[in-house]
Amino acid sequence: MHELSYATSILNSILEVLKEQESLGKKVTGVSEINLEIGDLTLISFEQLKFAFEVIAENTLCKNAVLNTEMIKPKISCLNCGFLGILEVTDELEAKCPKCGSMNVRIKGGKEFNIKNAIIEFDD
């Protein structure tokens, strides 16, 4: 379950930002939302990621944070027929050109895992 390591990475990154904000004299009261970009080729189960995050964030300022995700589709270029487009990811992890069926392709993207932004709540 590699989702736990991803969830831990998210939590540690956000807690580091909260620590920085507090060192600037700001009173952080919580995090309400964390927005992620996740590539389809990471094969991360978003439901498992959310569950793992909820468990490890339980006693932190992130305990009420909602995780949102934007899934990033990989792009494919066929070296055989010149097709450029989106690669539809299946469980088989075959990278075939949807136009000619060739496996002589290049894949760009789809492996992203980024924290796009987070909504941090402060005490005025």
Protein model, in words:
The protein is of the alpha+beta class. It folds into two domains: 1-74 and 115-124, hypothetical protein PF0899 fold; 76-108. It is built from two helices and six strands, in the order αβαβββββ. Strands 2-1-6 form a three-stranded mixed beta sheet, covered by helices on one side. Strands 4-3-5 form a three-stranded antiparallel beta sheet, with no helix packed on it. β3 and β4 form a beta hairpin. α1 (3-23) crosses α2. The mean pLDDT is 94.
Radius of gyration: 19 Å
CATH class bucket of the largest domain: Alpha Beta
Largest sheet, if any?
3 strands, mixed
Mean pLDDT over the full residue set: 94
In the sheet with the most strands, the strands line up as: 2-1-6
User: What is the SS-derived class?
Assistant: alpha+beta
β-strand percent reads: 25-35%
Just name the CATH architecture of the largest domain: 2-Layer Sandwich
Distance between the termini: 40 Å
CATH topology of the largest domain, which one?
hypothetical protein PF0899 fold
Count the domains.
Answer: 2
Give the H and E element order. HEHEEEEE
Helix content: 25-40%
How many helix segments?
2
Low-confidence stretches: none
Dominant shape: elongated
Q: How many DSSP E strands?
A: 6
Can you give keywords for this protein?
metal-binding; nickel cation binding; alpha+beta; 124 residues; nickel; elongated; HypA/HybF; hypothetical protein PF0899 fold; single chain
